[in-house]
């Protein structure tokens, strides 16, 4: 059962920011195909931008390829992998009177596993960081033609990340503090999990 937070209407319900805690503590991939396509298009877009000089000298061709891959990634994450891996969904709804509403849904019991949740969120953040690095590189070299490409990459990935964070936190929570809390929590959780596994391995050998 999904809980909704509707922006632009009186029907709101805040959702606690518990990234990955709603999943069963299993490390298996329940949706390997969804995980593959969640990573596939964004990785291909980054590689196409990074290695573009090896394949073509045409800016138009490279621009079309990168934007196409970014568009496929945006659609896949927004409409498929977010729902399957973390139980979240967001979209814009226009009522008959022309009123536009942003709807953010959070399924309390998600179908994905812990590892799928971590892959989903960390890949979102890491991808944006990479595109920001590419943007800074374009600015430093004053390569104005590539600034547009990196801007599209940042915009599309940031839109999905923003939408899914809103699904998690609801309408009334500070976005910047929630995002910082999320990233720190994921890093600490990964470190704790690795340390626990190492201790378990050591005790087994003893």
Uncertain runs with pLDDT below 50, 5 residues or more? 1-25, 171-179, 201-206
Strand order of the largest sheet: 1-3-2
Average of per-residue pLDDT values: 76
Rg value: 19 Å
The number of domains: 1
Distance separating the two termini: 47 Å
Major pleated sheet = 3 strands, antiparallel
Order of SSEs:
EHHHEEHHH
Q: Give the structural class.
A: mainly alpha
Q: Indicate the percent of residues in helices.
A: 55-70%
What is the strand tally?
A: 3
Membrane topology: Multi-pass membrane protein
Keywords: Membrane, Transmembrane, Transmembrane helix
Organism: Ridgeia piscesae
Pfam families: DUF846 (PF05832)
Briefly, what is this?
The chain is mainly alpha-helical and 206 residues long. It has six helices and three strands. β2 and β3 form a beta hairpin.
